[in-house]
Amino acid sequence: MNDIEALALAAELAQQAASIIMTIRSRGFDVIHKSDHSPVTEADHAAEKAILAGLRAATPQWPVVAEEEVAAGLMTAPADTFWLVDPLDGTREFTAGTRDFTVNVGLISHGRPVLGAVALPAYGELFLGIPGQGAWKRDADGERPIHVRTPPEEGLTVMASRHYADDPRLAEFLGQRKVAALSNIGSAAKFCRLAEGEADLYPRLGRTMEWDTAAPQAVLEAAGGAVLTFDGQRLGYGKPGWENPHFICTGAHV
Q1: Other C-beta atoms within 10 Å of 149: how many?
Q2: What is the pTM of this model?
Q3: Which residues bind Mg(2+) 2 (predicted)?
């Protein structure tokens, strides 16, 4: 299976999961909390089940690492090439009734994201990317290429996590830069807004896991952006424990 075929598979399964999530949201759901106190719902489990079934049937040669399986103790051995899946990124946003939650399906090869599909179910949007080949947005108006923008002279539009909006480290980081606007939203949607040229910078100073970032990193890099650790290294994958260091997402020339 080549990259284009793998991206088509990821896109199909992300959209399928998005439909499942919106159906469950429309009829109501219960919320429980995992051992790390993060919320999980029926939508997380149903979406993950659908994605895993599709990936394992179509690409049995590639292991799948998925958030809820890892939370349940079902660990996948590292491999050169593997899928990273977050079936519902932004569960807090989902349970709070906001729109900023995503479905993330990314493929990793030798520690790097090589393609990704990110669905925004409540917006009816799908973002796709293969670094080095291009990035696209698909919605009710069709599919079109996307690219990061050059920051405007009046200053940066910054995306930040709603849950870390009052973090003094964020204020210190932004105080060193010319900022025109700050928008607080949840989930991997922030990567997507940078990728389509609606924002310029997203510093992440809180905890994230690899399934939170793999697919959206592929999209952002494919659109001309970058995802870097604070020491300037490209964010990598397959780390013990699957936890990311803090990182910065940028558009062009930031």
Answers
A1: 19
A2: 0.94
A3: 86, 89, 212
d(CA 17, CA 23): 10
The domains located in the chain, with CATH, are 3-145 (3.30.540.10), 156-250 (3.40.190.80)
- 41 assigned ligand-binding residue: no
Determine whether 245 is exposed, middle or buried from the number of CB atoms within 10 Å of its CB (0-12, 13-18, 19+).
middle
Q: Is 13 annotated as a binding residue?
A: no
Strand partners, 204: 247
- 119 within 8 A of 15, measured Cβ to Cβ: yes
User: Is 44 assigned a ligand-binding role in the annotation?
Assistant: no
Per-residue pLDDT tens digits for 21-64: 999 988 888 887 776 667 788 999 999 999 999 999 999 999 99
88 is in an annotated binding site: yes
Instruction: Tell me the three-class secondary structure of 186-234, residue by residue.
Output: CCCHHHHHHHCCCCCEEEECCCCEHHHHHHHHHHHHHCCCEEEECCCCE
Asked if 64 contacts 76 with a C-beta cutoff of 8 angstroms, the reply is yes
Q: Is 77 helix (H, G, I), strand (E, B) or coil?
A: coil
Residue 56, SS3 per DSSP = helix
Check the annotation: does 86 bind a ligand: yes
